[in-house]
């Protein structure tokens, strides 16, 4: 084999190895990503049905129900509501009427089954995505009210 052919074989082998490594890294990153959606986006069908994602908004007042270790509550962006079920211990700062982000999957019945619940960390904090979603939903509600 000539030196030129050896160099080409080494370059092709290196590129193939690099491509395989990049594929595995990107596949691992893609499977661990949890995108954020609002209740309005979930109702619009933008959220994946078979993948883990995050839903955020406010916990609707009066929606919190406890049954042993299973907690049910409703997440709202003031336009749409999504029922959530979570089995586990809620964060200390979790309250009705406050911001929340839940990670899990949406069931075929429309119930979001959360594996993790994150609450705000002080009196003024709300996740930027949740704040933006609530502002958009309120603007849409105001536009609808003005048209009527």
Structural Rg: 22 Å
CATH architecture of the largest domain: Beta Barrel
User: Which strand order spans the largest sheet, edge to edge or round the barrel?
Assistant: 2-4-5-7-6
So, the CATH homologous superfamily of the largest domain?
Answer: Nucleic acid-binding proteins
Name the average pLDDT: 85
Overall number of structural domains: 2
% residues in beta strands: 25-35%
Main sheet characteristics: 5 strands, mixed, barrel
- What is the distance, rounded to the nearest whole angstrom, between the alpha carbons of the first and last residues? 81 Å
* Helix fraction bin: 25-40%
Number of strands: 7
Number of helices: 3
Structural class: alpha+beta
Apparent shape: elongated
Instruction: Name the CATH class of the largest domain.
Output: Mainly Beta
Compressed to H and E, one letter per element, the order equals HEHEEEEEEH
- List unreliable stretches of 5+ residues: none
CATH topology of the largest domain: OB fold (Dihydrolipoamide Acetyltransferase, E2P)
